[in-house]
Amino acid sequence: MKKPARGPSSSPPPHTPRPGPRPPHQKRPAVAGEAGAAAGAPRPAPAGAARPAPTGASRPAGAGPKREGKGRPTAERDEAGDGAEARRHASKSEQKVHGLRACTALFAKRPGDIIRVYLSANRRPTFKALLEYCVARRLGFQFVDDENLQKLSGGIHHEGIVILAREAPRISADEWLAGIAAKTISGPFLLLDGVQNPHNLGSILRSAAHFGCGGVIGEAAQLPPLSAASLRVAEGGAESVALVAVEDPVAMLAALKKLGVRVVSTTSRAGTPIAAAGLSRDVVLILGSEAEGVSPWLVRLADLQVRIPGSGAVQSLNVAVACGIVLAEACRGTGEPAKNPRK
What is the pLDDT of residue 342? Predict the structure, then answer.
């Protein structure tokens, strides 16, 4: 039997696509500092969404909410990534190290952590001993062109070499305090409060190594990882200075005070001029982010606030530059710096 013809309908059948052009696929806008995030990384929360509180928060009751952007201060977010390509072959316990002095220091301090070496052919004479070491231990090495070195390192400042290595183990807070108590680890010390820029961290580690700093500490939820950029800028200093993550900076400062360490907070405003502060090596210097400075609740724990006098033409010094000045003042007149263990 022939079916009757279907009459007109006011709406298309369910399977018929809606009329009109389909809107083009819209990429989500890039987030500052996210250029180097690995593929598949979780997207940031929508604007206005509540952020989960970090574990191990150490701020005292009544200290108020966490400052906006404290994890990565606004002024320091633009250089936060090292590039997805730089981490493509590395596991969570491995890192890429590039730069002439950073790689030289790595080979000198912990050659057993080296996994693979990539370098340009013209670096063969410079790293002859490293290549011989790789041959003797059957470690892979490869001569690659500049373009591939850029991809491996995530930038143009590789200086002709990239090493894939295991991350250096960090000393625990308890071990570190025990070393200070036993006089095997000596000051000065640094506490970083919100310093996240990898270049600033690298410069701080370089100055800390130069002055024989016995450790750089910071809250575990905020202390940045040692990225490839940090390691390169540190010029090998990261291999000589202990980086100590603490769950509770308040308790750590209290423990240091009991060991006779003076707590000094830096400031760009009111404070004792640095030359009149009478600093010594038995000191922990608190450095804040350039955007926010030192947190008020840490300032209240300090025995003293110091400032570096200036003309007033600019608001403050770069935090890494300020670090070098206060460390130099703490070490002035004390002779050669101490040889503190890396871990």
Answer: 54
The closest of 161, 287, 169, 164 to 218, measured between CA atoms, is: 287
d(CA 298, CA 286) in angstroms, rounded, equals: 8
For 194-213, the DSSP string reads S---HHHHHHHHHHHHHTT-
**Distance of CA 262 to CAs 152, 156, 249, 301, Å?**
43, 42, 15, 11
Instruction: Tell me if 50 is assigned to some domain.
Output: no
Distance CA 103, CA 101 (A): 5
- Does residue 67 sit within a domain? no
**Measured between alpha carbons, how far is 293 from 165 in angstroms, rounded to an integer?**
34
Computed over every residue of the chain, the mean pLDDT equals: 78
Residues in CB range of 256: below 8 A, 6 or more apart: 177, 180, 189, 263, 284
pLDDT of residue 105: 96
Q: Domain holding 241: CATH number?
A: 3.40.1280.10
Could you report the per-residue pLDDT of 224-265, keeping only the tens digit for each? 778 899 999 999 999 999 999 999 999 999 999 999 999 999
**Which of 145, 166, 187 is the C-terminal boundary of a domain?**
166
Domain that holds residue 138: 85-166
Q: Identify the pLDDT of residue 169.
A: 83
| Mean pLDDT for the stretch of residues 119-135 | 96
Is residue 201 exposed (0-12), middle (13-18) or buried (19+ Cβ within 10 Å)?
Answer: buried
Same domain, 105 and 223: no
Q: Is a pLDDT exceeding 90 seen at residue 4? A: no
Phi and psi torsions of 129, nearest 5°: -65, -35
With respect to residue 77, please indicate whether it lies within any of the assigned structural domains.
no
DSSP classification of residue 80: -
Q: According to the model, what pLDDT value does residue 252 have?
A: 95
Residue 68 lies in a domain: no
- Quote the crossing angle between the two packed helices 198-210 and 319-331, to the nearest 10°: 10
205 and 292, same domain (yes or no): yes
